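Problem 12. The chain below contains 98 residues. Write out its predicted structure in token notation.
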Amino acid sequence: MSLVINIYYTGEGDNALEFAREMISSGIVDRVREEEGNLGYNYFIPMDDENTVLLVDKWKNKEALDIHHKSSMMDEIAKLRNKYKLSMRVEMFTEVEK
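Solution.
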């Protein structure tokens, strides 16, 4: 059973969008996508909230997610989040396989 995590990054003005752009341009997104067990890592912009960017993060299992959370990339992501002064709201779902 895979896990789907929705992370809503919210800040002032274009800060959330600039954060997502820097995550991509710095190569962090590609590195996360290359991690064992990562099934998806994609940003979306909610149509009704211009100050928020949604990250849909998908993992094969909790073990893979736990390994990612212990990686040095988490420090890099936290530094960028602080740089852009973003708050986060997190939702986690278990994907049911048919």
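Discussion. Strands lie at 2-10, 38-44, 52-59, 87-95. Students who got a different answer should revisit the alignment rule from Section 12.3.
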